[in-house]
Design goal:
- By secondary structure, the chain is of the alpha+beta class.
- It has one domain: Roll (Thiol Ester Dehydrase, Chain A).
- It is built from 3 helices and 9 strands.
Length: about 150
């Protein structure tokens, strides 16, 4: 779809699309000295699930960038509930929780696959911008992208 018009990850798709899941495995390099997944890794897990969701919907980030657009994160939140360790499998469930004219907010549930325990909740807010020499210019989400995001909100 045009806009000018890790580890052993796999993605699961269930109907309806609001139940999209992305499965990741915690890698050794994502853990701290105590063997626990570093707090910054959760942001990467959310990003991976979000980009996989968008790709599945037919909206690859690379296509947006080729059209001169980007979706930079302007806000991120993570609420940690339980520790993940090396080689734990993690299900990340992203969904659109708010859709504006020029921004989108995704919420995430992160669940340990082996026992179903909720290990973290998260949120990312992204703004739509045009990539211009010398800076970023806020612009409305392309109509096609807005429609795709509506389908999973």
């Amino acid at each position: 779809m045009g806009w000018s018009g890790h580890g052993c990850a796999r993605t699961h798709y269930h109907l309806p699309m609001t139940s999209f899941e992305h499965l990741l495995r915690v890698r050794y390099g994502e853990t701290d000295q105590m063997g626990v997944a570093h707090h910054s890794s959760y942001i990467l897990y959310m990003e991976e699930a979000r980009t996989r969701l968008l790709a599945h919907l037919g909206s690859a980030y690379s296509e947006l960038e080729q059209a001169g657009l980007a979706l930079p994160v302007r806000r991120v939140e993570v609420r940690y509930r339980s520790a993940l360790r090396f080689e734990d499998e993690l299900l990340v469930r992203p969904r659109v929780s708010r859709l504006g004219g020029a921004s989108v907010t995704f919420s995430y549930e992160m669940i340990r696959a082996t026992d179903g325990e909720l290990v973290a909740n998260g949120l990312t807010e992204l703004a739509c911008v045009r990539l211009k020499p010398g800076g970023l210019v806020p612009v409305p989400l392309p109509e096609a992208l807005h429609s795709l995001l509506e389908s999973v909100s």
